[in-house]
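This week, think about what follows.
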Amino acid sequence: MVHVLYGMNPGKDIGFYMWIDTGMVALYLAVLIGIGLRGRVKDVKGFTAAGGKYGTLTIFASLSASYIGGGYSSGNAAEAFSEGIGMTIALFGFSLSTILIGKYLVPGVRRFEGEATVGGIIGVCYGRAARVLTGIFSFVCCAGVVGAQMGAIGLVFNVLLGIPPRLGILIGCGIVLLYSTSGGLQSVIMADLVQFAMLAVGMPLLLIMALNRTGGTEAMLQTLPSGYLNPFNGTTPSGFFSMFITMMLGEALAPPYTQRLLIGRNPKGTARATIFSGLFSVPFFIITGMIGMAAYSLHVTGDARAAMPALVMEILPTGIRGLVMASMVSIILSAADGFLNGASVGLVCDTVRVLRPNMSGRAELWWLRAVNLATGMAAVAVAFVLPDIFNILVLAYSFWSPLILVPLAAAMLGVKSNGRAFRYALLTGLFSCLVWNYVLHKPLNIDGAVVGILCNLLVFTACTRSYQKYRVQRVIMCRQK
């Protein structure tokens, strides 16, 4: 098909032009590796990027590159290919939460100056045990997300470059491990800047050329099944609402995003960066959703998961195809590297170091790199066993938002509470989420993360009110004495 599109003779010429595109991807990957090797860190502060030296534009680009991974790009395109517009609209929940976080929660980070992790915030407000638990669940959540991204990179390498999926997973993970283990979050942020530029150019370019092939937006929409413009297609209103809430809260304040809120130069600049990032996500989600529908309209593949990469191979000419191929790779690696760093930093800085307070800085850096490598290998195993990107993401969210989100948001808002409220809320959120999903099997098609967040909120609120009443009574008694 390629030689028909570009007026070439089949055989030798096709291989030559394909090597041009492959070479562009290889060059891009070499740049990422160079960033990691050049930015090799020598202490824990460098690995966690602590110090608050990053400005608004850097935080905006890094935050945007981090959340736009395989699920929000090729995963969204796959859902639009198979079911229509529903998932794209549900993803606006994430956009909304990011904007609200920037407006109402980010200003509160000034109370945690010097902290570089989610567990650091939790520890200040709820105590040592709460920080240890946060480190453990940060690790579990982030490792799951990295596994989802590795599954996506395997599929992308397979469709774009003809590499077997498992080998593609190993190559992608190996590259991320190289620069993230060597340079820590500093190298990840530098890589994010390159990756953001790639995805901001590549995805709109792919959509423009796809719509040109279909004859325009209106012509493309006319070829779709009637239900594709109905957000409830393939689900129920309650199921759609559940997915919207899951997208809104499931990844909110996840470890890599909160890390970026803590390393900003000033809270006002970081708040603006967060709001801009949320606004940027809206057109990006629309673009990737429309890419999936354009792939359906052009009949480029019968496999929804391959909708975006198959479209790239079908319609783009040499050179532009190589650019967009590199853009697709950058999208997935940009999410994987941030969550990989979040997993290692969370487990080591918030759990291991707290349990071993006399650990030297050199030993802690060794631990960070070792956990980074181990997490990458575990993510490869997850990608081998669970091929569905969205299912892995939803499972990972089950160990974050129903457990940590409410107490973390309360801490950033300045709500006074204690470790007991944190622990009871965490256990309630975890238990209710697991029972709802795996014992009751999601009644009304509502995901357990939504139920877990609600139960966590109720218990945390009740325990916090009890604690605050106790504090008031103690003050009154002290004054009476």
